[in-house]
Amino acid sequence: MTGRLAAAIALGLSVGLAGCATFGNDNAAGGRKGSVYQNERFQADETFSRLFDASVEDTCEAARRALLSQGYVINLAQSGSISGSKRFQPEGEVHVEISFNIVCVPEGGAGKLSTAYVSALQDRYTVKRSTNSTSLGVSAIGSISVPLSSTSESLVKVASETIPAGQFYDRFFSLMQKMLKEQAQVVSGGEAAPAP
């Protein structure tokens, strides 16, 4: 009997350990997919940053002007950081908001070079309708109830993600570079004369 008890305990332990191994394995059949953080490479070839031949103040000002020129609302403008957002409605009941966060840091000791680190977050919302119904009872007449209903709508966030590095950021950095050139022309007084 002692041998049977020991064998049963051993069998139970081996089944339990196998179950734990299956549960803990992300790639097991029926298990969870790989965690998002496993795709974070932390390599230098990402394009969330760009080096500019300008001071921190001028670089962040170019970023602010670039956002404003595209209809973004500036939420925060501090020394070395800018944030702005813009809303879109690509479909009838779908709303999207893009939020930019920009941080400008100096490069080198002369203060004439700076790097702009940019990331953009895209939030997706959908319209949610909820019906509120109440009843009104009139006790003097009897048990008469009159249904009163109203429908309310609200935006519910259904997705949120950081826009991946690529052409989206390249276009923004190109616009920043254009703004920097225009600022330099204004400072040097080298604006082109209007055509006759």
Shape: elongated
SSE string? HEHEEEEEH
C-alpha Rg, in Å?
30 Å
Q: Helical region count? A: 3
Low-pLDDT parts are 15-31, 191-196
Q: Say how many strands there are.
A: 6
Characterize the biggest β-sheet: 6 strands, antiparallel
Overall helicity: 25-40%
Beta fraction of the residues?
35-45%
The chain-level mean pLDDT equals 80
CA(first)-CA(last) distance: 109 Å
Give the SSE map.
Layout: H1 2-24, E1 49-52, H2 56-69, E2 73-78, E3 81-91, E4 94-107, E5 113-138, E6 144-162, H3 167-188
Antiparallel strand pairs: 1-5, 2-3, 3-4, 4-5, 5-6
Short account of what is shown:
By secondary structure, this protein is of the alpha+beta class. The chain has 3 helices and 6 strands; from the N terminus they run αβαβββββα.
Please characterize this protein's 3D structure.
Helix 2 packs across helix 3. Helices cover 30% and strands 41% of the residues. The chain is of the alpha+beta class and 196 residues long. The protein is built from 3 helices and 6 strands, in the order αβαβββββα.
